[in-house]
Amino acid sequence: MSKLFETLKKIQPRDKTFEAQALDRINHLIKPKGSLGKLEDIAVKLSGIQRDLHPSVKKKAVIVCAGDHKIIEEGVATSSKEITKIQAINMTRGLTGVCALAKHVGAEVIVTDVGIDNEVPYDKIVNKKVKYGADNFVKGPAMSREEAIKALEAGIEVAEKAIASGVQLLATGEMGIGNTTPSSAIVSVIGGLDPSEVTGMGANLPQDKVKHKADVIRKGIEINQPNPTDGLDVLAKVGGLEIGGMAGVMLAGAANRVPVVVDGFISTAAALIATTLNPTVKEYLFASHSSLELGAKKATELLGLNTALDMNMRLGEGTGAVLMFNIIEAATYMNDEMITFEEAGFIVD
Amino acid sequence: MSKLFETLKKIQPRDKTFEAQALDRINHLIKPKGSLGKLEDIAVKLSGIQRDLHPSVKKKAVIVCAGDHKIIEEGVATSSKEITKIQAINMTRGLTGVCALAKHVGAEVIVTDVGIDNEVPYDKIVNKKVKYGADNFVKGPAMSREEAIKALEAGIEVAEKAIASGVQLLATGEMGIGNTTPSSAIVSVIGGLDPSEVTGMGANLPQDKVKHKADVIRKGIEINQPNPTDGLDVLAKVGGLEIGGMAGVMLAGAANRVPVVVDGFISTAAALIATTLNPTVKEYLFASHSSLELGAKKATELLGLNTALDMNMRLGEGTGAVLMFNIIEAATYMNDEMITFEEAGFIVD
Fold first, then answer.
1. Would you call A100 and B309 a contact, using CB atoms and an 8 Å cutoff?
2. Beta-carbon neighbour count of residue A54 at 10 Å?
3. Are B73 and B50 contained in the same domain?
4. What's the gap in Å between the CA of B168 and the closest CA on chain A?
5. Per the CB < 8 Å rule, is B101 touching A338?
6. Which residues on B lie below 8 Å from A336 (Cβ)?
7. Per-residue pLDDT reduced to its tens digit, B74-100
8. pTM, rounded to two decimals
9. Which residues of A touch B103 (CB under 8 A)?
10. Rounded mean pLDDT, A31-44
11. Are residues B89 and B142 in the same domain?
C-alpha cells in the first residue's frame, strides 16, 4: 500500500466528545459566555484534535516547501528562478520573513526542496526533490500523476518526521517564483471560477500583466482539462511540486491528529488539493490571515474556513500562518490559566 | 500647572524623519515591497514613536482600570457591582481572561481602582480611587469636572510609573459592570450618533433590554447636554471613572512617546475622550481587534484607526489589546531579523 493511500485511509474526524466537554468547561470560565469568540472556537477544535481538555501547542514548526515553475517562461512573474534557490538558502540562515516571525513565536523552520530547478546544498535543506521544476502547463501537464504522488509523499514524510520529534502544531509555507500561477489555476478549477476572478499580482507583477497571467492560466486549463473532483489530477496537470508538498503536510497532520495552519493564497490552493483528496482533512486545518492576493478570499471561502488576522499581507513563505501560531497558543493559555465560576465561588452569566 | 495640563502640553507628533528612514529600510528587506502589510505599518509607526530604527517592545504592561456605575440601577446590566470587585481581585491572582493572555505574551497586568464602589485590598491593586462609583447619569452628571480630572490623572500617574520602570508598550483594559453604557453614551455624543446605533449587549444583556439601554443613554444625554468638543465635559457628564483612567493612560503614553494599544469598545470610547482633549494622542495609539460589541466598529472608525484582529471577541479587560501585543512585537522581529537585498547581495522587486 502506498504511503499516500495509507495516509488518506488513516484520517478520522475530530473527537466530538472531547469537543463537547471542552466547550462546556469554556462556557463556565469567569467571563460572559462566548465573549472570547474565536479563541474559544480554537480551543474547542484543538481539544477535538488532540483528545485533551488542555491541548498543548508548545512545540511548533513551519514546513516551507520550495519548487520552481517553468510556466514563468510565459511572462507571469517578475523574478527569475534563481530567487527560489537564493531565498531557500536565506531561509536556512534565518534571514527571511518567515524566519523572523518563527523566531518570535519559537517555531522551527523546516526548508524542504520538493522541486527547485537548481542545485542547492542539503546540509540544512531537506532533500525531497521530485524533479527540477514543474513543467510549463500551457504545453502539457505540470507533472505526471506519479510525480504528483511523490510530491504529496514528500510533504507527508517531512511532516511525519516533525511530528515524531514532538511537534504539536504545524504550518505550511512555500518558496517558488511563479507559484501564484498554478495556485490560481487550482482555485479556478476546483472552485469552477474563471481565472480572471482568482488571478492577482503575486510578487508585484505589474497590473497590466495580470490579465495576461489569467489568459495563460485559462489556456493551461483548456489544454490539460483537469478533473475538478480528482485532487491528484488537478495537482499533476496545473499544480506545482511544492504545492503538492504542502498538501502532503496537511494530509499527514490530519492523519496524525496534528493541527495544520494554512498560510495565504498558495497554501489555500494546496489545502483545496488536500481536501479534494479527503474532505475530512479540513477538520485539522486552521486558516490564518486574509491575504491581499486576489483570489485568497474566494479560496478560503471554498475551503469553508475563516481567518482571524487582517494584516494586508501577501508575502507567503508561511508568514501569516506563523503569525497565527501566536493566536492559537493564546487560546491554550485561556484554557490553562482561567478558572471557572464554580472554582471562583460565584455565578455570573 | 496641573498634571493633566502639563501632560497635554507635552504631547508632540511622531518623528516623521525616523519614519521615512524606517520605511526606506523596510522597502529594501528581502521580500516583495509592501508584502508584509500592516506589520510594516506598525514597524514604521513604532520607529516614529521611539525615534529608533530598531524599536523594541520587550517590556509590556496592560493597565486595567476598574470602576463602578450607579446607572446599573436603571436595568442596563445583568450583573451586580460585586462582580467588579471580585473580578478586580481575581485579576491580581492571574485568573481572568486578560491575565491568561498577558502571561502568554509576557506582559505585566496592573490593576488600578479608579472608582470601585466597594472596599478592595490594596496590597496588589493600585489605589487611585476617585470616588465610590460614577453617579447615575440619568439623574445628573456621572461625576464633577474636578473628579473627571482626577480620574484622568489617576491613569496618567499609573502609566508614568510603568514607563519609568521601563515599559515600552502599554495597553488599556477595564473592569466595571455597566461600563458599556457610558461608553455608548460617549461614542454617541462625540460621534453625533443616536444611542441606538452604538448600544449593544455588553456582558450578555438580553436583546429585548438593549432598546431600553439605548433609551436610558438617550435620556442621560438629554439631561446632561455634554459638549461634544470638550472631552472633559463628556467624560464628567456621561462617562465613567475607569474610562477617565484609561484615557489618562493614553495621554501619558503619547506625552512620553510610548505606544498604547486600544482594546475593544470601552477602550475606544476612552480613546475618543483622549483624542478630543488632544488630537495628536491618536499618533501613539494602535487599534487591536474589531470587537463584536455593537458600536465598536463605528467607534474605531471615528478614531481613524484600523484593526488587525478579527476574533469575534467582546470580553474587554484588555484581552484584545494584549493579543495585539503579539502582532506588534512580531513587527519588531521583522525589523531585527530580516536583511536587505543589498545585504543579501541580490535585487528583487
1. no
2. 13
3. no
4. 17
5. no
6. 100
7. 999 999 999 999 999 999 999 999 999
8. 0.96
9. 333, 337
10. 96
11. yes
- Per the annotation, the verdict on B317 as an active-site residue is yes
Q: Which of A56, A316, A298, A272 is nearest to A193 (CA)?
A: A298
The three-state secondary structure class of B260 is: strand
Contact yes or no for A32 and B314 at CB 8 A: yes
| Residue to substitute from A57, A104, A204, interface B, most B β-carbons within 10 A | A104
Of B299, B302, B296, which Cα lies nearest the Cα of B314?
B296
Residue A43 has pLDDT above 90, yes or no: yes
Check residue A293 and give its pLDDT.
85
**B305 in reach of chain A (CB within 8 A):** no
Closest chain B CA to residue A326? B326
CA B168, CA B162: separation in Å to the nearest integer?
9
> What cell numbers appear for B290 in the block?
474589531
Closest-approach residue (CA) in chain B for A308: B310
Task: CATH number of the domain at B23, please.
Answer: 1.10.1610.10
Q: Is B177's pLDDT higher than 50? A: yes
A313 and A217 fall within a common domain: yes
CB atoms within 10 A of CB B274: 34
Evaluate whether A201 touches A294 at the Cβ level (below 8 Å).
Answer: yes
Q: What angle do CA B109, B113, B115 make, to 5 degrees?
A: 145
Q: How far is CA A162 from CA A107, A109, A170, A173, B281, in A?
A: 12, 11, 9, 15, 47
Task: Tell me the residue range of the domain where A45 lies.
Answer: 3-55+333-337
Query: Domain holding B193: CATH number?
Result: 3.40.50.10210
The distance from CA B36 to its chain's CA centroid, rounded to whole angstroms, is 25
Look at strands A169-175 and A285-286 and give their pairing.
unpaired
Residue A273 lies in a domain: yes
Q: How many CB atoms lie within 10 A of CB A136?
A: 17
